[in-house]
Amino acid sequence: MSKHRTTIEEYFREHPPANVKEAMAKVEELTGIKRSENRVRAFLKSIGMAPRKVGTIPAKADPEEQESFLKEELESRLEEARGGSKSRLFVDAAHFVLAPFLGI
């Protein structure tokens, strides 16, 4: 792979692979050389690439703001819906959220 080092390095700088298996496939496509995961991982490390770690974004809900919304806005709207003058629909998000939310 050393003969193709600059080509592979330039490609990966422009299009970083999501994982080692993707990098293996791209190295084979670019050079025709098939290498193991360990060899490709070592090569990526030798050109200064490293896996990126994901983190979380702190999501602290403000309890006072939630209570204010509940009392000042939501309860009056729900009363209108109970009275029949307006409709209210609940729509749930289609993804997991690892944070507390007010549920009514």
What can you tell me about this protein's structure?
The longest helix has 21 residues, at 63-83. With 104 residues, the protein is mainly α. The model has no long low-confidence stretch (mean pLDDT 83). Helices cover 51% and strands 0% of the residues.
Rg, rounded, reads 26 Å
| Distance N to C terminus | 60 Å
Strand coverage percent: under 5%
**Structural class from helices and strands?**
mainly alpha
How many helices in DSSP terms? 4
- Overall number of structural domains: 2
Q: What low-confidence regions span 5 or more consecutive residues with pLDDT below 50?
A: none
Structure summary:
By secondary structure, this protein is mostly helical.
Secondary-structure map:
Layout lengths: L4 H10 L5 H12 L5 H10 L16 H21 L21
Q: What labels would you give this structure?
A:
single chain; 104 residues; mainly alpha; 2 domains; 4 helices; 51% helix
